[in-house]
């Protein structure tokens, strides 16, 4: 059973809602379980919604820290965007509530945790696993772009894994609703495309670049433009200094796909629906969308 109906969620994020509606959820609605992790602004706990018995992840953020770092606006945007997205590969945000000191986000529980840890454990993924993940992310991004949402911060740290092994895009902190082209500089340098590094206008095709970087990192264990100095990463991105090391051995069809995504001219990057038809995806991605090992 879902823990909130769509109309309840919409009431909670609507700016016109009354105080009573916005405070529909309270901490008393949840049994709090083990800590799942901690982030910059607070902690995440496993929790059970008492009425439905539904397991969720409760993210507890301290208002004082949000204020100090001036990210309240970013959080509001994250909540508004993420709570309206419904896709099997996007982490659900069911709702939120707050008290005097804290803001609580009620999130879908991703039982297998961070993809980043999995990647660290195995150093790099085999092609079946990488292709299955890339295909599921492409489908999630097609869905987002169809709703005029660009994520802008696709990287292993922002991906969680559900109980069945399905990938879940989390952390919409840098995402935007885009009816206008954006010029804002944001995100970690390694995953940024040339047009964002150079602060020129950018559009939804930034996510194709980041997915190309991620695909490379899945297969090689390191992002493609990594360098010791920030300024060298910057140069390598601008020049699209893409090199494929001899080890681990990666098929040429995978390299072909990466080369078609990491293209400086954003309009020439392989569109996501074409990516799903690329021979590497067709040959290696599990059609179920879940990597079964
Ligand atoms: N929905 C979830 N399901 C399972 N584990 C989660 C969930 N959300 C967060 N976690 C765990 O809690 C940790 C902290 O999450 P959180 O989103 O607060 O921080 P972060 O993304 O690491 O950092 P930041 O503060 O920069 O957003 C994550 O790294 C993850 O291990």
Automatic annotation (TrEMBL):
One GO term of the biological process aspect: regulation of cytokinesis
InterPro entries hit by this protein: Aur-like, Kinase-like_dom_sf, Prot_kinase_dom, Protein_kinase_ATP_BS, Ser/Thr_kinase_AS
Intracellular or extracellular location(s): Cytoplasm, Cytoskeleton, Spindle pole; Nucleus membrane
Residues of the Protein kinase domain: 30-281
Chain positions recorded as ATP binding sites: 40, 59, 108-110, 157-158, 171
Catalytic activities: L-seryl-[protein] + ATP = O-phospho-L-seryl-[protein] + ADP + H(+); L-threonyl-[protein] + ATP = O-phospho-L-threonyl-[protein] + ADP + H(+)
Catalytic-site annotation from UniProt: 153 (proton acceptor)
Coiled coil location: none
Protein family: Belongs to the protein kinase superfamily. Ser/Thr protein kinase family. Aurora subfamily.
Protein name: Aurora kinase
Organism: Erythranthe guttata
